[in-house]
From TrEMBL:
Keywords: Detoxification, Dioxygenase, FAD, Flavoprotein, Heme, Iron, Metal-binding, NAD, NADP, Oxidoreductase, Oxygen transport, Transport. Pfam families: FAD_binding_6, Globin, NAD_binding_1. Residues 152-261 form the FAD-binding FR-type domain. FAD binds at Y190, R206, Q207, Y208, S209, F395, F396, G397, P398. This is Flavohemoprotein. Binds 1 heme b (iron(II)-protoporphyrin IX) group per subunit. Its cofactor is heme b; FAD. The record marks K84, E394 as: Influences the redox potential of the prosthetic heme and FAD groups. The lineage of its organism: Bacteria, Bacillati, Bacillota, Bacilli, Bacillales.
Length: 406
């Protein structure tokens, strides 16, 4: 337990951490990987190179400092991170390693400002926070392993099908090698895929949203091919260009907190930017099956029709379910798009367009996509006065902060 004095000490360091947080976490990861290079098999090196993981960890540390006297307020974030940790295979034995190097990084960056009292308070605080994560993750591991069809850590799968959805997105149908039934999952969840790529020194693990409804004999993931020079492109380019039907890969059980509330009867609005369509089309399939009378609007904002995935799949859902409305927004339509009027809005999603076409006053909103798209959507919804309890969103990758206009 932390003393009141220690809590006050931790809270007093929050402004300093906000100023130097990313510098501390950058130093932390440098130390961590120098001393424990095997952990490079777990951590996403693309996120490291882009600084995303450093910023995400810094934000978590700052939030912990600011709420050290009421840690229950950050439990939603803890749950979200714990799901990611469970899907990656993070275990209790990793936490002392992280703590040791984090404290060294704090001391290295803050220097003489990191007094003995401050360092002792942070050492004790880290243990409290680590114990919370370990407890939450232990429950997730147990729940995952004991559910029907569940398993611990990773399990061998093979690629049973590979379907091109657009110029940049390909779907992979994954089946377990042991041919056992798969566990069910919540629409919106993801799996971790672990690959040993011949050209790479370390194992690569990536999370991909499940893009088709649960209770099938397979998992479907739909992967966007990133630019081959982008650090994120290592796995996606391998899957697109090298992986073939029959190839083996290791897969985690489904995880994630960005899930559809099928108990709600409010109109549903799904807003996707680019490959952000993948968890949302899963939600759409599920809601039309389980709540066929629930009004649904799905908006897909993409560059043009060549890169738009699932057009026919979405069209078929509209034909079969009268309560579903689908809108396409193209920022840079091709000549064919223009000739065929292949969109409902040209340019970008706007406040006026949303107000004119969507049930803004009563719907539940779920959105996913690139950060600029999500910030635009969030600002439009805030401008309209949509309350926080009706907002649901997810980042692909480490949790970031959405910059909103006040």
């Amino acid at each position: 337990m932390l003393t009141e004095q220690q809590k006050d000490t931790i809270k007093a360091t929050a402004p300093v951490l906000r100023e130097h947080g990313t510098t501390i976490t950058t130093r932390f990861y440098q130390l961590l990987f120098e001393k424990h290079p095997k952990l490079l098999n777990i951590f996403n090196q693309a996120n490291q190179k882009q600084g995303k993981q450093q910023r995400a960890l810094a934000n978590s540390i700052i939030a912990s400092a600011e709420h050290i006297d009421q840690l229950e307020s950050i439990m939603p974030v803890v749950e979200q991170i714990a799901h990611k940790h469970r899907s990656l295979g993070i275990k209790p034995e990793h936490y002392p390693i992280v703590g040791e190097n984090l404290l060294i990084a704090i001391k290295d960056v803050l220097g003489d400002a990191a007094t003995d009292d401050i360092m002792q308070a942070w050492e004790d605080a880290y243990q409290v926070i680590a114990d919370i994560f370990i407890s939450v993750e232990a429950d997730l591991y147990e729940e995952t392993e004991q559910q029907p069809g569940g398993w611990k850590d990773f399990k061998p799968f093979y690629i049973a099908g590979k379907v091109v959805e657009s110029d940049v997105i390909t779907s992979f149908y994954l089946k377990p090698v042991d041919e056992q039934p798969l566990p069910t999952f919540e629409p919106g969840q993801y799996i971790s895929v672990k690959l040993d790529i011949p050209s790479e020194t370390y194992t690569n693990i990536r999370q991909y949203s499940l893009s088709y409804k649960p209770n099938q004999s397979y998992f479907r993931i739909s992967v966007k091919r990133e630019d081959e020079h982008d650090p994120n492109g290592v796995v996606s380019n391998y899957l697109h260009n090298e992986a073939s039907v029959g190839d083996l890969l290791d897969v985690s059980a489904p995880a994630g907190e960005f899930t559809l509330d099928t108990n709600s009867t409010k109109p549903l609005v799904l807003l996707a930017g680019g490959v952000g369509i993948t968890p949302l089309i899963n939600m759409l399939h599920t809601v039309v099956e389980q709540q066929p009378s629930r009004p649904v609007s799905i908006v897909h904002a993409v560059r043009n029709g060549d890169v738009q995935a699932f057009e026919q799949e979405l069209t078929d859902l509209v034909l079969d379910h009268q309560h579903v409305n689908i809108y396409t927004i193209l920022s840079h339509p091709t000549a064919d798009d223009e000739a065929n009027k292949h969109y409902h809005q040209k340019g970008f999603i706007t406040y006026d367009w949303m107000k004119d076409h969507l049930p803004m006053d009563e719907a539940d909103f779920y959105f996913c996509g690139p950060k600029p798209f999500m910030e635009a959507v969030m600002n439009h919804l805030n401008q309209h006065g949509v309350t926080e309890d009706r907002l649901n969103f997810e980042f692909f990758g480490p949790q970031e902060e959405l910059e909103t206009v006040q």
